[in-house]
Structure formats: structure tokens, C-alpha cells
């Protein structure tokens, strides 16, 4: 059984004249960073196999709504292939991106165990395979297999910590800080290494939703970060630049 490893430190920034990035950013390896995040957020191989034995695999196409915020559900969802976009819609009708689900992650546990509605919108990104596990079968499984129960508790704990991190980011008064915090979160699960840094596969619209700000204001902030030499803007991607060698 594999054990979750601690995540490496995220890049840190001081937003002042002569911006300084801490040493941690120089050692950031995007492929390892993303791999470690996925392993921490994913179930063990034992739990995954056990869930496959009681679940039903379904295939979804691009842009389909798997679950909607406020929808009643008695099914936990294990992502097998593809990605799922997790978001909420504000009272003003604006979408706020929370995160993406990666293969190996499970969602809906709190709704299934507490018998409550689902708290977000879950939309497919590309062709997606999802294992659907009904509540009665899930309860029976964890009753018979304590190792699966402990693993699911670990996932729920991770989700709580993730929620608190997101709430903490949103309380930041500076848009500059919120934008950078959103970039750090995205780097954990949706980035790849490039020669001069770490490339985040995200549009400015998605980033604006993650930072709880308008696209125009976030675009202005990104331009400033680019002028400071912190990032490079591309088409539907943003590169966090490594500091130049002294």
C-alpha cells in the first residue's frame, strides 16, 4: 500500500519593488510536484480495486454535467480517465472555478455519507470515464474492509484542508495576492515543466474565476506580473518563470 507524501513547498512571492522569490521556487520540479499532488489526492491501489468491484463505469463526453450544485445524489464518483471541472455559480450568475479533479480522485463522499446534496457543479473536460459507486454498496464495502474506510477518511481530511486553503486565499485583500495564490493552487494539479519554469494549463477566464475577480482586472494584474519578470503569458497557458541565475 502506498503512503501519501507531503507536498513540496509552493513558490512564494513578495509583492514589492524588486520582487524576490524565495529559494523554494528554484527547486520546483513541475512534473514531480504534480505527480506528488495526484498521489496524495488519489486512493491507494487496494481501495481503487475494491471500489471497482462494487462500482459501475460510465463514459462521458466533453462538457457534460455529471453533477450539479444542489442536486441530490447517493453516488460517489471515482475519476478513472480525463478531468472534471469543479465550480460554483455565485448569486450574480458568475462561475467560480474551484479546482480540477484528476484521475484517481474520488468525489461526493460528504454528500453520500451525510445524505445531502452535492455542493458544486462537476463538468467533464474531454472524454471522461467515471466509476459510480452507490451508497449502499459503498457502506457495505467499508464495513467489510477497514483499510478502505481509513483511506476514504484520509481523502475527506485532504478535502477539508483544501477547502480551508481556498477560503484563506479568498480572504486576501490584495488582488495581487489572490492571483498569485490561485496560480500556486493550479500549479499543484495542472502544470508541466518547461525549460524556463513551470507552465500552467489555464485560461485567463479560469484564473479570474479561481481568484474571484473579473477577467479584466486579472488580466491587468497578470500584465504587471509579466512586466516584473515573474510570469510569461501564452495562449491558454501561463508560465511561472524560474529566477535567473545570479
Task: Explain what the structure shows.
This protein is of the alpha+beta class and 246 residues long. It has two domains: 13-39 and 174-241, Winged helix-like DNA-binding domain superfamily/Winged helix DNA-binding domain (Arc Repressor Mutant, subunit A, Orthogonal Bundle); 42-168, Jelly Rolls, CATH 2.60.120.10. 39% of the residues lie in helices and 27% in strands. It contains eight helices and twelve strands. It has helices at residues 30-41, 45-52, 109-114, 135-144, 146-170, 175-189, 204-210, 215-227, and strands spanning 13-14, 20-21, 56-60, 65-67, 75-89, 95-101, 106-107, 121-134, 191-194, 197-200, 231-234, 237-241. The strands form three sheets. Strands 3, 4, 5, 6, 7 and 8 form a six-stranded antiparallel sheet that branches. Strands 9-10-12-11 form a four-stranded antiparallel sheet. Helix 4 (135-144) packs across helix 5 and helix 7 packs across helix 8 (215-227). It starts with 12 loop residues before the first strand and ends in a 5-residue tail after the last strand.
Short description:
The protein has 8 helices and 12 strands. By secondary structure, it is of the alpha+beta class.
